[in-house]
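Hey all, sorry for the wall of text incoming. These are the two entities for the joint prediction.
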Amino acid sequence: MSDEVKSAEAADSAEVESPSLYDRWNAVREREITVAVLTVVGVFLAPFVLVEVPEMIGIRTQYIWYRSLVTLALIWGIFAIGYDLLLGFTGLLSFGHAIFWGTAAYAAGIFSAEVSGSPIAMLLVGTTVAVLLAWVIGWISLRRGGIYFAILTLAFGQMIYYIFLSPLGWLTGGENGFNSVAVDPLLGFLPLGAEVAVVPDALIGTWMYVFVGIATILAVVVGNRVLNSPYGVVLRAIRENEQRAEFVGLNVWRYKLMAFIVSGAFAGVAGSLYVIQRSFVPIENTLSWTVSGEIVIMTVLGGVGSLFGPLLGAGLYMYVANIVSGMSGIGDFWHMILGLVFVAVVVLLPEGLWGGLSWIRERVAGALGGDDR
Amino acid sequence: MSTILETDGLVKEFGGLTATDDVNLSIEQGELLSLIGPNGAGKSTLINLITRMLEETEGDIRFEGESITDLEPHEVVQRGIGKSFQTASIFPELSVEENANIASLGAEHGAFRFNFLVHRDSYPEVEQRTLDTLEAVGLRDQRDTRAADLPYGDKRRLEIGIALASEPSLLLMDEPTAGMSPEETQSTVELIKDLQEELDLTILLVEHDMEIVFSISDRIAVLNRGSIIAEGTPDEVQGDPSVQEAYLGGVEL
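and here's what came out:
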C-alpha cells in the first residue's frame, strides 16, 4: 500500500516539474553534455545504421555505404565543422581552405616517413603546421573583406599548390603525391586496420574508425564550446554588423583572425586524419583548389550557421561522390546530380539539411502540443 | 568644468573639397553640445574624425587631455567615447539579449580576449551588465525577441543601450530621433535627458529637429561648409544673423 502512495506522489511531483516531455527535451537539448552524448551515440551507430541495416533489409550493396566511406565522411565532417565557424558564424568566405587541409596532410605524411608514424604525433604535427599557416595567411588576407578576402585566399591556395607540385617536388613527390607514408599502430599496439575485438564488429569496425570517431566527437564538443564561449556571440556579431561590433570596442580584426586560425586548426586535424586513413598524400585531393570548393559545398548543403549541419553535408557529398558515382547509368553524371541536389537544397532549404530537419522537428513538436517558437 | 574633448585646427579634405575646415571645438564635462548645420555642412565628417573612421588631413583631437589621432576606432571606444548611429545599428539576427551581451563583452573584457574555450556562464559580470543595459533602456521583457523584429523605436533604444553599455564618458549621438514617430521622438528625448542626468554623461548630439535641439542643448555649435560659424547657448545661437543666413538664405549650389 505504501508503494502505491509513493508512486502516486512521484507522479504528482513529476507533473508539476515537467509540463511536457517536449519542454523537458528542449531544456536539455542545448546543454553541452547533451550535445556530446548525442555525438557519441551518432558516431557509435553510424556504421551500423548506414552499412549493416541497409544490408540486412536487402538493399543492393552498390547502393549502400561501406565502412571506410563512413570514416571518410566523418573526416570531412570535422573539416566542415571548422569551416562553418568561419563561413556560417563569422560570415567570411574563404576559398583557400585546401591550404590547411593539404599542408597538414603533407606535414603528417612526411613526418610519418621521416620521424615517427604514431597517428597521434602525425595529427599534432599536421594540425600545428595548419595553425601556423592559418595565422600567416589570415594575417595577410583579412586586411581586406568580402570578395577581396575570398580571392586572396584562393590566390594563396594556388600559390601553395604550385609550390608543392614543383619546387618542393623532391620532398612532396610532386604530381605523383607523397607515397612514403608509414602509419604505426595507435599507441604502439593497436593497428588501425584491425577490428576492435571487444565490441561486436557489426557496430564499430576498425581502430581507424575509433580513432576518427573520437576526433569527431572532440571536434563537435570543441566547436560547440567555441559557440558557447564569448566568441560565439562576438563572431556572429561581426557577421551581422561589423562596424557596430567595432564600435562596442571589440577588435574585430583580431577576432576574425582567431576564427580563421581555429577553422584552420579543424582543417588541419581533418587533413592529418585523411592521410592516416589513406596512407598516401595525393596532391589533387589535398591542395587542389577543388578541395576549397568542395568544403564550401558541403557546408552549405548541411546548413551554414549550425553545429551538426556540416556533418550532414559532408555525408551527403560523400555519398553522391562515392556511391552515386558508381551506379550504373547515372554514375557518370554524378557531378550534375550533385549540382541538382545543391540547387534543390539552396532553393528549398535555405538553411540546409539541418535547417530542414529543424523544420520537421518543429512541426512534430507543434503536433505534440509542445510550446515551440 | 573641464574640457573632455577638443579638436585643434582640425582639417579634412576629400580631393579638392574641404569637408572640415579648421575646426576648434571643445566639449565640457557633463554638457550636451548640439552640432547643427545645413545638409553637407560636414557634421558627419566631424563625427567620423572623432571616432577615427576617417583620418584627418591636419590638426589634432584630444580626449581627456590625450591625443587620440593614432588610435583605431575600437580603441577610441575603449578610451570612453561611445557612438550611437544615424540608422539603428544593431545586430538584427541576434536576440535583444545577445545584442546587449556583445556590448557588455566589449565593456567588461576590453578589445580582445583569448577565451574561445571558456563558457559564457563563467562571466557573471558580463551577464549582470547585460541585464543592467536592458533595464536601462526598458527592453528587459523583450530580451528573447529577435532584434530585427522590434518596432523601430525600440531598435533605436536598443542601439542607445548598446552604445551606453560601456559607460562612455562621451556619447556621440548621430540623429537619434531620425525616422521616429512623434511619440517615439518624445520618449527618446526623455531618455537622453534621463541619461545625461543619471550617468553624468557628456553628449555631442547631431540633430535635425530644431525643436529638440533648442530644448535640450546646453550649447549649440553651428557648422557650415566645414567650419564653425557660431557657438553658444541656444539663445545666443538663435539670434545670430550668420546662422539665419546659413539656414535660410545664401546657400549656393
